[in-house]
Specification:
Length: 376
């Protein structure tokens, strides 16, 4: 049933329609087998540019499909055009592919269809997505150098244990002298690795394959990221980052004309499990007429800056702008923390790796030092 048909049917019963929200007006089209890579930010940027140039929606999508070279993205655009030509609305077409288009984006487009201002809605979502991508790239770049340090340090340590230490073990055994217990333990461990090098190599390769599978698969990255964020010194920062995404998403939906309580319910997935429980209480309080600032504070969902800025937004009627400023403030603070942490982590890792390698080297040469001392 279309939106117009639903309005006429309810009007015939004497009911007045205040708002129409499509939940699942299109049956999702089965995606082809295999992974489909679809860059949502690039799609929005290109679609916005074509619409601003004067093309209508169908012409713009046809143009994007014609220039697309990646099979996955081309398949997505093809399915979009097929369902759009069947007379479906653009928001329903997007809602049929939730694996590529998040609910926030679909709701923004659906709201723009009522006002006829799709390019402006795309521009707002581009800004929303660009901010998130900037933080994500900063996190990835900050993690690359420490990861390389750990890999190189680990390989050097394995080389010392599996190749150099056994050579020293042969020399010490031929001398017949009693070794310090720490050196003896190190030499025994090195001999085990040397004698069973194929098992050690297979274990190393298997570990790298498992880690690679986690990193390169979206589900694996999500699980690994969730485990890392459970660390005590990262949990608080992770909650602040989730709140920033929540503020920005609600701001985007409010700017699109979606009511506050409904907007809060649509972005629940951006928060952690504990935060989602508190958000439900906050949403109920807002539906009962409580101000957003009071509800956020009562639900422990208000960043210290958010409490003040949201109150300003309630007084001035600029809630969307104030939530966006709150998110920007939190993002800037998070970016500064990432820079500080990465600068601190790099020398700490270098010191740890240096200490590990130094201990291995000292324990290898300790019997020689003892021998030199006895000769003197």
């Amino acid at each position: 049933m279309t939106e117009a048909q639903a309005i006429r049917k309810l009007g015939a019963r004497g009911l007045r329609v205040v708002e129409v929200a499509s939940v699942a007006s299109v049956v999702p089209v089965d995606a082809p087998k295999g992974a489909e890579r679809f860059d949502l930010l690039l799609f929005n940027q290109e679609l916005h540019a074509l619409l601003q140039a004067g093309l209508n929606l169908t012409e713009a999508l046809e143009t994007l499909q014609a220039k697309e070279r990646q099979a996955g993205a081309r398949s997505v655009l093809n399915r979009m055009l097929q369902t759009l030509r069947e007379g479906r609305s653009f928001s329903d077409v997007l809602g049929a592919m939730p694996q590529h288009f998040p609910e926030v984006f679909v709701a923004t487009v659906r709201a723009s269809e009522r006002t006829g201002d799709l390019p402006q809605a795309l521009l707002r979502f581009i800004a929303y997505q660009a901010q998130f991508d900037t933080i994500r790239k900063k996190l990835v770049s900050a993690a690359i150098y420490p990861a390389m340090l750990l890999v190189v340090g680990g390989l050097v340590t394995l080389f010392l244990l599996g190749y150099v230490v056994p050579k020293f073990a042969v020399v010490y055994e031929s001398s017949g002298r009693e070794l310090p217990w720490m050196s003896a333990a190190l030499l025994s461990f090195g001999r085990v690795i040397h004698n069973h090098w194929h098992i050690a190599l297979a274990s190393l390769v298997l570990g790298l394959l498992v880690l690679g599978g986690l990193v390169f698969r979206p589900q694996g990255r999500s699980w690994l990221f969730a485990q890392v964020l459970k660390l005590p010194f990262l949990a608080r920062r992770a909650d602040e980052f989730r709140l920033a995404r929540f503020y920005r998403a609600v701001s985007l939906l409010l700017a699109a004309g979606i009511p506050l309580a409904r907007a809060m319910g649509m972005v629940t997935g951006l928060l952690s499990g504990a935060q989602q429980t508190r958000l439900i209480r906050c949403q109920r309080a807002v539906e009962q007429g409580q101000s957003l600032s009071v509800a956020l504070v009562a639900s422990s969902l208000a960043h210290p800056v958010a409490e003040s800025l949201v109150r300003v937004g309630e007084r001035s009627g600029q809630m969307a702008q104030m939530l966006e400023r709150t998110a920007q403030f939190v993002d800037d603070d998070f970016a500064r923390w990432v820079d500080w942490s990465s600068r601190l982590l790099e020398p700490v890792l270098m010191v740890v790796i240096g200490v590990v390698i130094g201990v291995v080297v000292v324990l290898m040469y300790l019997p020689i030092f003892d021998l030199a001392g006895s000769l003197q």
